[in-house]
Every structure is written in C-alpha cells, then in structure tokens.
C-alpha cells in the first residue's frame, strides 16, 4: 500500500494525467485486495448470523448479505453526525472544540474533532447512555494501576511510593504533559455500578484481549481510576447537555497531527 502510494505521488509529480493515475490506483488496490483475500479469504457474499444464548445453546437467525445486515442492525437515526467525540484533557480549556490536523484516514474523510469536557460531565453522559443500553467506545491508559489477571483497575492497586521511597504524585495534567500517561487502548464501556444516590462507584469495560485476560475478557475499574486514566469516548449527542452541544458550534482550535492527545 505504501509502495503504491509512493508510486502514485511520483506519477503525479511527473504530470501523469488524472485518467492514468486512476488506472494506476485501481491496479494497486487490486493487488491489495488479492493479498488480503489470500491471507484472510474473500469477503462473504452472504453469511448466517448465529449467537449463543444464556444457556450456551447456539441459536441461528437467518442469512444476510452484509448490506442487509447493516440496514437491519443499525438504529433508524444512525448517522456519524450524531456521535460526538468527547475528551478529558486538563491541560486545555473545557467546553472548547478542538480539531487534530491531518488525522483523517481517507482523503474524503474528516479530521478528529472533539469537545474537551470535565470528568463529571463525561460520567453523566456515559451513565445515561449505559442506562439506555447503549455501549460506548472509549480510550484510556489501561496499563496504569491495573492487574491483567484479575481485571481490576484501581489507584491503590500498587503502592510504588512505599516500595521505592519516592513520591509518585504527578496529577493527570503533569502526566499528560510529560507523556507519562496517554490515551493508549480502546475498549467498550458497558456498565456502571452506582451507590444509593446514583453516584458511580465502579465501571466495566469489555476488552478485546480474549476471555483469558481479566474476568473472562472484562475489566472493572473504580470511579477514581476513571478520573485519572480515562481520556476519550464517542457518544450519541442525545446524552450530552446543552452546554456541551453548544461547544460544537465554535470554531475549532487547530492542533498538530503529533499532538499528545492524538
């Protein structure tokens, strides 16, 4: 892919016509498709959707084409415009819209844009989404104060200060600015345990490391851990309050592609 892209740029610099460039691109993509098909198999024309019920029995629904499945499984109001990226970055102003330059994955795509919000606003939106049975894409610094075997993430998991006699007292802002902490791993936020006043106590991730990691593939983290190591999520705009939605109408502050929150 990179070799083909380099070749196209060289051809463009040599003033090759748009028609010829299109032909070259088509041949390059054909090679990429062939390699992927040899390694992974050709994409199915149809497939049978099956799943295991609570008793472990395999249930079979019906055959789909990929497009049929997409149309049936996605909500009626689904649109990328309805899903907003929100971030907690204490190094920058809250209720401000930011855009990371040159972060789009395709020429026709859009750059990353996010609203920077306080943790309490993010938690409120996340809890509302979970209560409505809508899981949320999130990204955090999963390696910090975490136990991979038990699947527990808590600020008191390891007491490095007592072990080494050295203070480990940087706050989130300082850790971000020194690259000690960053958004490093994406997971699905699926659950929240609250107290009698509906205040979050702990949360749950569905991870992608397999059933052997954590608690059968799930990670539980305290609300305090959320404050320190949760960074961003993508959530339906219905769960954001008016102040956050108003932030979307601002002119975005431009950030470089190498920004530490990319």
From TrEMBL:
Enzyme class: hydrolase
EC number: 3.4.22.40
PROSITE patterns the UniProt entry points to: THIOL_PROTEASE_HIS
UniProt cross-references to InterPro entries, sorted A to Z: Papain-like_cys_pep_sf, Pept_his_AS, Peptidase_C1B
GO biological process, one term: response to toxic substance
Key words of the record: Aminopeptidase, Hydrolase, Protease, Thiol protease
One GO term describing the cellular component: cytoplasm
GO molecular function: cysteine-type aminopeptidase activity; cysteine-type endopeptidase activity
Organism: termite gut metagenome
Name this polypeptide is given: Aminopeptidase C
């Amino acid at each position: 892919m990179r070799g083909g892209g380099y070749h196209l740029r060289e051809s463009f610099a040599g003033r090759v016509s748009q028609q010829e460039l299109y032909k070259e691109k088509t041949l390059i993509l054909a090679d990429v498709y062939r390699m992927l098909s040899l390694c992974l198999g050709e994409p199915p024309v149809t497939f049978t959707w099956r799943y295991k019920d609570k008793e472990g029995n395999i249930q079979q629904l019906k055959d789909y084409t990929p497009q049929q499945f997409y149309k049936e499984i996605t909500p009626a109001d689904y649109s990328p415009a309805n899903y907003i990226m929100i971030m907690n970055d204490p190094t920058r102003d809250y209720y401000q819209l930011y855009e990371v330059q040159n972060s789009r994955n395709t020429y026709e795509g859009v750059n990353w844009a996010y609203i920077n919000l306080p943790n309490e606003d993010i938690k409120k939106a996340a809890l509302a989404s979970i209560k409505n049975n809508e899981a949320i894409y999130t990204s955090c610094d999963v390696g910090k104060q975490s136990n991979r075997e038990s699947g527990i993430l808590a600020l008191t998991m390891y007491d490095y200060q007592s072990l080494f006699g050295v203070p480990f007292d940087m706050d989130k802002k300082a850790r971000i600015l020194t690259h000690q902490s960053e958004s490093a791993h994406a997971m699905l936020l699926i659950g929240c345990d609250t107290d009698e006043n509906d205040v979050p106590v702990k949360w749950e991730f569905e991870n992608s490391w397999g059933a052997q990691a954590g608690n059968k593939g799930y990670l539980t983290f305290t609300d305090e851990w959320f404050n320190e190591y949760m960074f961003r999520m993508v959530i339906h705009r219905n769960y954001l309050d008016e102040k956050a939605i108003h932030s979307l109408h601002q002119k975005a502050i431009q950030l470089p592609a190498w920004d530490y929150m990319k």
